[in-house]
Specification:
Helices cover 50% and strands 12% of the residues. With 369 residues, the chain is of the alpha/beta class. It has a six-stranded parallel beta sheet with strand order 1-10-7-4-2-3, sandwiched between helices. Strands 5-6 form a two-stranded antiparallel sheet. Strands 8-9 form a two-stranded antiparallel sheet.
Length: 369
C-alpha cells in the first residue's frame, strides 16, 4: 500500500540543549511564552540571560488549557504592540504554552482574536495575514505539540473546543532538553506520560496509520510501558527523564501524521464537563478503546501485537498498568453512568478524531441496525 509521511520540524534533543537557543535564533528577536511558575523556577531568568537583547518580551501567565476568555487580551495586545516586531516565538512549557504560542503565531487581517475564533468556528481553511516562526521547548514529556501543527483552544463558557491546524502552525524547531523536566511534580509527570502513551496507541488504531508512524508509535509504547513506572518512583532520575522525553517525541512524530482517535475524542467532553486533566481524560478510556480496536483489522492487530504483546488479555493488562499508576479506568469512577458513557462514546465516534478510529464505521453500522 502506498503511504506518505511528513514532519517538517527540526528536532534538537539532549540534556543541556537549552543553551543552543541563541544559535538556533540566528540573530532574530524573540518573544518568550511560558507558564507562571517558570519565573519561580528560574527558567525565565536563564532565558533572559541567554538571549539578552534578542528577547523582545515575555508572556509568563499561560494557564492550563488556554481559554478564549484568557487568550483574547494576550493575542490582541501582541499583534497591536511592540512585541509583534519579534520574528520568533519561543514557547517554553507544556501543551498549553505551546498551544498558546501557536494561536499567537498566526495573525488575522484585523489582528483581533475574535476574528480568529470566528474562522475556527466556521471550520474553513484560511491563510493568515502574517505569521511568526515558532521554537517549541517542552518542559513535559507527553504533549507532542512540539512536533505537530495542532493547537487546542477551549471555550468553557460555550462548552466548545476549537482545533487550530494550519500549514503555518508547524513549529520550525522542537528543542527537547530533559533537564527542564527534572522539576516536574509527580502529578504532571504522570499526566503527561499517559498522554504520550495515548498518542502512540491512538496512532496505531487509526485509519491514517502508515509504516513510518507505526515505527515511531511501537517504539514509544515500549519505552513508556517500561520507563514511566520507574520514573514515578524516581522523579529526580535524569536518565529516566531523558527516556520519557524521547518516548514522548516519538509518540508526537507518530500522531503528527495520523492525528488522534477515539480516546481523545472522548477526552474533550470529559475535560469540559467533568474537569479531568487532559492526560487522565485521554488515557483512562484506552483499555476500553483497545478492546474495541482488536479484531477490526488484521494489519492493525499485527501492529498492536508488536506494541503490546499477545492481544489475548491485552485490554486487561493495559488497564492494570494504568490503574497501578493510580488512574482509574472506568467511566463510573468519574461519576459517569453507563447510559451517559454509551452516549458519550457514540457522540465521540461522530467527531473528527472519533472518525479516525478503525472501528468507527463498524460502530456506525451497528447503530444503524
Amino acid at each position: 500500500m502506498p503511504h506518505e509521511y511528513l514532519n517538517p520540524v527540526r528536532s534538537v534533543y539532549g540534556a543541556g540543549e537549552l543553551l543552543s537557543l541563541p544559535k538556533l535564533l540566528g540573530g532574530r528577536r524573540a518573544l518568550l511564552v511560558t507558564f507562571p511558575e517558570a519565573r519561580q523556577l528560574g527558567l525565565v531568568a536563564r532565558i533572559e540571560a541567554l538571549l539578552g537583547e534578542q528577547l523582545a518580551g515575555v508572556i509568563d501567565d499561560v494557564r492550563p488549557n488556554p481559554d478564549v476568555a484568557e487568550l483574547a487580551a494576550v493575542y490582541d495586545a501582541f499583534w497591536s504592540g511592540g512585541a509583534a516586531s519579534a520574528e520568533v516565538i519561543i514557547a517554553v512549557g507544556g501543551g498549553s504554552a505551546i498551544d498558546t504560542a501557536k494561536a499567537l503565531m498566526v495573525a488575522t487581517p484585523s489582528g483581533r482574536f475574535s476574528e480568529l475564533v470566528a474562522l475556527l468556528s466556521s471550520g474553513k481553511a484560511f491563510t493568515p495575514a502574517r505569521t511568526k516562526m515558532l521554537i517549541a521547548v517542552p518542559t513535559t514529556a507527553g504533549t507532542g505539540s512540539e512536533v505537530t501543527p495542532w493547537a487546542t483552544v477551549w471555550d468553557r463558557g460555550a462548552q466548545k473546543k476549537y482545533s487550530l491546524h494550519l500549514p503555518e502552525t508547524w513549529p520550525s524547531i522542537a528543542l527537547i532538553d530533559p533537564e527542564l523536566m527534572l522539576s516536574l511534580p509527580a502529578s504532571v509527570t504522570l499526566q503527561s506520560g499517559l498522554d504520550a502513551l495515548s498518542h502512540a496507541l491512538e496512532s496505531i488504531w487509526n485509519v491514517n496509520a502508515n509504516p513510518v508512524s507505526d515505527t515511531f508509535a511501537v517504539a514509544a509504547v515500549h519505552e513508556i510501558l517500561e520507563a514511566l513506572p520507574q520514573l514515578m518512583e524516581h522523579l529526580d532520575d535524569a536518565a529516566l527523564r531523558g527516556r520519557m522525553a524521547l518516548a514522548a517525541l516519538k509518540a508526537g512524530m507518530a500522531f503528527s501524521n495520523t492525528r488522534t482517535a477515539l480516546a481523545h475524542s472522548i477526552s474533550y467532553e470529559m475535560t469540559l464537563r467533568y474537569g479531568l486533566p487532559h492526560g487522565i481524560a485521554c488515557s483512562f478510556p484506552l483499555p476500553m478503546v483497545l478492546e474495541r480496536a482488536i479484531g477490526q483489522s488484521p494489519e492493525r492487530d499485527a501492529v498492536l501485537e508488536r506494541a503490546l504483546g499477545n492481544l489475548a488479555g491485552a485490554p486487561a493488562r493495559l488497564a492494570r498498568f494504568i490503574e497501578e499508576l493510580g488512574v482509574r479506568t472506568r467511566f463510573a469512577d468519574y461519576g459517569v453512568s453507563d447510559d451517559q458513557a454509551q452516549q458519550m462514546v457514540a457522540h465521540a465516534l461522530t467527531g473528527a478524531r472519533g472518525k479516525n478510529f478503525i472501528g468507527a464505521n463498524t460502530a456506525a453500522l451497528k447503530e444503524a441496525a
